[in-house]
Write a structure and sequence with these properties.
The protein contains eleven helices and ten strands. It is of the alpha/beta class and 350 residues long. It has a six-stranded parallel β-sheet with strand order 7-6-8-9-5-10. The chain has a two-stranded parallel ribbon with strand order 1-2. A two-stranded parallel sheet has the order 3-4. The longest helix has 29 residues.
Length: 350
């Protein structure tokens, strides 16, 4: 009944709007303009009020309501108290935002991973907002924590390092993904392993650089390598949707994405995503061991846990070895003989 009322009024609004547009060119009819404007506004007001009534009816008849944090403060929910509020991605939510649904519930459950990236805060003056309620509660009330320790994304060899480094060895692979792998070995710069390191530390063109007027970093050698690997997989019959490229730096993402249709994103942009094959370009290559964004180990955790079957990391091992965590990852790969040294000119990359 209410839906048909809205449809009927919308038709009236369309008719009145059409007449209003027509009288702009008819001087004799301009005296009717104030009436038409008033009627259109009145009808739109009726539509809004009717929609609120419909929404109220839907809410009152629903057992579960899905909303964003901020939408939990809508007028339609003003007199609703929830039995329980379940907030997903709570480790990426600022405290002011998460308090909105919590204030409307008798109990609440926070779901997230504080070992991965925090909320994105653009203003340096508000960096304190990166500290989340999720992390505070994990630290203050450890007995209330429940780890969902079975992961369903990556095979066991890809899981091993983040498991030991970030999750105290508590993660378990589901049997369906434990041994999942890419059966094809590419002709160049590849081995039969889910995790491959391509080390550029001895290549003459390994250096990082910047585009003019940019604060971001690029590494043209790594970009060319990433594109070659992507094209190799596409030539072997893999779908574009199976492959992803990750880099911590937006300029590197841009120069790679301009040359391919596969998904290329920053680490932050890839959080929550997954691909069968992930190629990671770390970019940083300098003699001082300056890592920039890479110093935030939560970015490393996100980046190396996006691949389901194959992870290829392109990096300058000498630069990254200045950080103890990256050094341990590199040593693990060396012990498994999964580090490939790339030092030739390789004219096909030019």
């Amino acid at each position: 009944m209410l839906y048909s009322k809205i449809e009927r009024i919308n038709k009236d609004v369309d008719r009145l709007s059409k007449e209003l547009n027509e009288i702009k060119f008819k001087s004799k009819s301009k005296s009717r303009k104030p009436f038409l404007i008033k009627e259109i506004r009145r009808n739109k007001r009726i539509i809004r009020n009717t929609e609120k009534i419909i929404m109220k009816d839907i809410i009152n008849e629903s057992q579960v309501i899905l909303t964003t944090n901020s939408s939990a403060a809508r007028d339609e929910l003003s007199d609703i108290e929830f039995d329980v509020a379940i907030i997903d991605e709570a480790s990426q939510t600022t405290i002011p935002s998460i308090l909105i649904p919590i204030a409307k519930a008798k109990r609440f459950i926070l779901a997230g991973d504080h070992k991965q990236l925090p909320p994105v805060i653009s203003s340096d003056a508000a960096k304190e907002l990166e500290e989340t309620l999720f992390k505070k509660f994990i630290e203050k009330y450890p007995s209330k924590k429940q780890l969902l320790n079975v992961q369903y994304r990556m095979n066991e060899k890809l899981m091993n390092f983040p498991n030991s480094e970030f999750y105290n060895g508590e993660l378990i692979c589901d049997e369906k993904v434990k041994d999942s792998s890419i059966d094809i070995v590419r002709e160049d710069l590849d081995i039969d392993s889910p995790l491959v390191f391509i080390d550029t530390s001895n290549h003459p063109k390994r250096q990082e650089t910047r585009l003019k007027y940019s604060k971001s970093y690029i590494n043209l050698l790594e970009a060319k390598l990433a594109l070659k690997i992507v094209n190799d997989y596409l030539d072997l019959g893999f779908d574009e949707g199976d492959i992803g490229v990750i880099s911590p730096y937006s300029d590197q993402v841009n120069i790679i994405s301009n040359e391919t249709d596969v998904e290329v994103k920053t680490v932050d942009g890839f959080q929550g995503g997954e691909k069968e094959i992930i190629i990671m370009s770390t970019v940083r290559s300098n003699e001082n061991g300056k890592l920039g964004f890479l110093e935030d180990l939560r970015r490393l955790n996100v980046a190396i846990t996006r691949a389901m079957k194959k992870l290829i990391i392109i990096e300058n091992i000498e630069t990254l070895s200045h950080n103890d965590t990256y050094k341990r990852l590199i040593e693990d790969c060396r012990s498994e003989n999964t580090v490939i040294e790339f030092k030739s000119e390789m004219e096909e990359l030019e």
